[in-house]
Specification:
single chain; mainly alpha
């Protein structure tokens, strides 16, 4: 009986490890997608501030390296 409990415990540990590795992989891929979706331009002042985007109907405004969403209703 003790052998069966130890075997189940090892299988649960292996499953937890696999789930953790899967979670880390998914999180890594998601963060990679987010990173590549962000604009990669630097501002001219060299301070790391992103320039303001004037795209008309764009819903993102980039100022000082942070994004703020603004909804526009017409």
């Amino acid at each position: 009986m003790k052998h069966i409990i130890n075997k189940i415990s090892l299988e649960e540990k292996a499953l937890q490890d696999t789930m953790l590795q899967s979670f880390k992989l998914i999180l890594s891929l998601l963060l990679n997608q987010i990173h590549h979706a962000l604009p990669q331009t630097d501002s001219e002042d060299g301070q790391g501030n992103r320039p303001t985007r004037d795209a008309g109907d764009s819903d993102l405004s980039w100022r000082s390296g942070t994004a703020s969403a603004s909804m526009q209703f017409q």
